[in-house]
Write a structure and sequence with these properties.
Elements: H1 11-27, H2 34-40, H3 48-53, H4 56-84, H5 91-100, H6 115-134, H7 140-152, H8 158-184, H9 191-194, H10 196-211
Helix pairs in contact: 1-4, 1-6, 4-6, 4-7, 5-7, 5-10, 6-8, 8-10
């Protein structure tokens, strides 16, 4: 039998990635096999994942980078615009960038937007793999945001600021993932999650988390 060669472009590969992203978002990367991905994607050949991507790990890396590159590009563009206008001048302006850059990530040909849910699941179980995939290149927009936040936040110890960034990431990831799952359920539209007020309230509460008074315990 001739050996399959790797192929990373084309509608078949794109559909497999979309299917895998959805399954990973629901069950985590350890809870899904390449055979299940191929079957769910309508591929008769169960070697389709290996054909298009080489391995399951390579598939996961591509899915990570698809969203990460888009989010990072958005953050740099938004920060460039704010800095050109003399900003950002408040914590809230930076929080808005972090949130807005993570919305509406679905493929153009699909209503399904599950990247943050996928990411939230992945970071909880394979954070080192995620960070190694991003490297320093596709995390630079986030680091620029943190640099501005460190200057704009209240005068509290650096360690406390870093801890709040951990809280912020967990909070934003969890809430945005919940929103994605609710928005993807077209049979049961959820008025709360689809309301622009929900994103506004998320931004307000995230800002409050970063600006909250700090008490040094004895």
């Amino acid at each position: 039998m001739p050996r399959l060669t790797k192929k990373q472009t084309g509608g078949g590969a794109a559909h497999i990635k979309l299917t895998a992203r959805r399954l990973f978002a629901m069950r985590g990367i350890d809870g899904v096999t390449v055979r299940e991905i191929a079957t769910a994607a309508g591929q008769k050949n169960h070697s389709a994942v290996g054909y298009h991507f080489g391995s399951k790990e390579a598939l996961v890396r591509e899915i990570i980078l698809d969203g990460a590159i888009l989010i990072d590009s958005r953050r740099h563009q938004m920060l460039d615009e704010l800095e050109a206008a003399g900003g950002p001048k408040s914590v809230r302006e930076v929080v808005d960038i972090l949130i807005q850059s993570s919305l509406n990530l679905a493929d153009n040909d699909s209503h399904e937007d599950c990247y943050i849910s996928f990411l939230n699941m992945l970071v909880g179980t394979h954070n080192e793999f995620f960070m190694e995939t991003l490297g320093s290149k596709w995390n630079s927009g986030y680091q620029r945001c943190l640099a501005h936040l460190r200057l704009l936040m209240p005068d509290i110890p650096a360690a406390a600021k870093n801890q709040r960034f951990v809280f912020m990431l967990s909070y934003l990831g969890s809430v945005l993932a919940m929103r994605e799952r609710a928005m993807a359920d077209l049979e049961k539209p959820h008025k709360t999650w689809s309301s622009p007020q929900t994103i506004e309230h998320l931004a307000l509460t995230t800002t409050a988390l970063l600006e909250a008074p700090y008490t040094q315990l004895e």
